[in-house]
Amino acid sequence: MSDANTQAVEKYRNNFLKEVSERVEEGDWVKMCMQCGVCSGSCPLGSAWAHPPQEIFMMIRAGKREEVLTSDSMWMCTSCYNCIVRCPRKLPITHIMHGLANYAHRLGLAPKNQPTRVLGTLFWNNAIQNGRINELKFSLALYFKDGFSQGIKNALAMKDAGLGLLKAKRLNPFEIFGGHGCKGKKGIHAMLKKAQEIEARRKNFTA
Amino acid sequence: MAKKEYAFYPGCSSQKGASASNYLTSVNAMCETLDIKLTEIPDWNCCGASIGYAEGGELPRHVMNARNFALAEDNLPGQQIVATCAACWLGARETKERLDASSQLMADTNEALKEAGLNYKGGADVRHMVEVLIEDFGYDELKKPVVKSLEGIKFAGYVGCQTNRPFGIDGESFENPVYLDKLVEMVGGEAIAAYDQKVTCCGGALAFSEPEKSQKQIKDIVESAYDHGAEMIVTPCPLCQANVEIYQSDVNKRYGTKFNIPVLYYSQLMTVAYGGSAKQAGLDGQLIKASKLEQIASKK
Ligand code: SF4
Ligand code: SF4
After folding, report:
1. pTM above 0.90?
2. pLDDT digit string (tens) for B261-289?
3. Which of B60, B117, B284 sits opposite A195 (nearest CB)?
4. Domain B4-130 fold
5. Does the C-beta of A83 come closer than 6 Å to ligand 2?
6. Is the pLDDT of residue A172 over 90?
7. Residue A32 gets which letter from DSSP?
8. What is the pLDDT of residues A186-207, one digit of tens each?
9. How far is the CA of B95 from the centre of ligand 2 (A)?
């Protein structure tokens, strides 16, 4: 178990709802859910979720900490906001799903090779490195995440689309040498470091 | 002086050589005709997109957006911020609303921004290009420069998620928004009113991480366009455009279909209707050629 996770377990004992309220983005809304199921029924990938949103909220209240945080369900959220506009109680469901995924990731409980977890991490790291996304490096990092030979396979599978984009000038091979970025990237790095410190302070994260 | 001026937030995908660069080309042409002056926010950064949450978390994401706001306030005082990308707009607007609602979050954000030598005062609104067109100009005004009708082309107006939810365009319903259809009709095209997939999610970023699942979404979106006799799909969102266009060949392999339908931006339609060339409309950026539109563009 990671230190951060041990610390969280000790701090909140058996009160997972409290933990979610205090540490997960928009988590204090969970207690407002009336279990009508509209969110689950509205979710485009809902059938792929082991536990659709309504069930996740029920499980949080039932204290099923381990099951929720190790689930790959909330990683299936496409950020379509269908649930949000339909929920009769106006829960910010999308953000809670993002928040739960992020919290599980932070504690090291999220499924290790969950593809969206990997994607999200690659994306953010790519974005903050120079301040802007380098689409070429991002795609390559994604293809090659499972090693070189799988990477070649993935890249070949996407060959037609890739070549099409190149031809249409919507993919620039020279991005590999740097590409777009912000002049103020030093400031961006400093500001993000500070933001992480503040967030850790506010939410009482240790590690 | 231009009729209207805005602080422009193009977003990463609109940059030169990036996946929505043809969107920007057409927006520039469209804005020139309408006398809209877009001034890029100097040194703007990535908004974090919809998937940034996984690693970025809450405050860092807001801080990224707030940096853009602060830069806009400092360099383009008094101008509203306009984004062309649905995800950029949504992310930025969300940050704006959260900061407006919480003085704590605002203080935390400014504490972090200080490290970059910036301060955000909480000024300018964040708006989507479509919002600006419809609310600041209106259909009648937008119709005036039309010199070529897109008559004879049937369009499935694919609004998708993030330009539609949770904020959407004022006065439109989440389940059946009609502004895109109205824009199509305004340029003389035929809008397919019965297009039942107009607000379906394309899978968003999960097109990369969960291809089987998101391609099912894409299949439904394209199939319904065909079933209703559409010749082209039109959208306001760069990710919808990319997903629905790029993955059609994969969908064909997976499902044994033969889809090959062009997917365009509203701004490309408007540019052509305003008399712009195929190049000005960014039509050379289509993976699936919009031949009928190219023909209209090349007509004298
Ligand atoms: S729609 Fe809202 S109230 Fe209903 S189950 Fe989902 S979160 Fe709960
Ligand atoms: S935003 Fe996420 S949780 Fe909500 S309906 Fe869409 S995919 Fe499901």
Report:
1. yes
2. 999 999 999 999 999 999 999 999 999 99
3. B60
4. Glutathione S-transferase Yfyf (Class Pi); Chain A, domain 2 (1.20.1050)
5. yes
6. no
7. G
8. 999 999 999 999 999 998 886 4
9. 19
The answer to whether A194 faces chain B, any CB pair under 8 Å, is yes
Taking residue A5's Cβ as centre, other Cβ atoms within 10 Å add up to: 18
A52 close to ligand 1 (CB < 6 Angstrom):
no
Question: H/E element holding B81?
Answer: strand B81-83
Q: Which residue of B has its CA nearest to A122?
A: B55
CB contact under 8 A, A194 and B115: yes
Question: B146-298 in CATH: which number?
Answer: 3.40.50.11810
The interface pTM score, or ipTM, of the predicted complex is 0.93
Are the folds of B4-130 and B146-298 the same? no
Beta bridge partners of B38: B6
Task: Considering only the beta carbons, identify the residue of A94, A118, A183 that sits closest to B43.
Answer: A183
Instruction: Flag if A175 and B56 touch (Cβ within 8 Å).
Output: no
Q: What rounded mean pLDDT belongs to chain A?
A: 86
| DSSP secondary structure, B5-33, as one string | EEEEE--GGGSTTSTTHHHHHHHHHHHHH
Domain limits, chain B? 4-130, 146-298
Task: Take residue A144 and report the two structure tokens written for it.
Answer: 């090659």
In CATH, what is the architecture of A3-107?
A: Orthogonal Bundle (1.10)
Do residue A170 and residue B21 have CB atoms under 8 angstroms apart? yes
Residues of A with Cβ-Cβ distance to B114 under 8 angstroms: 191, 194
Rounded distance, CA B23 to CA B14, Å?
7
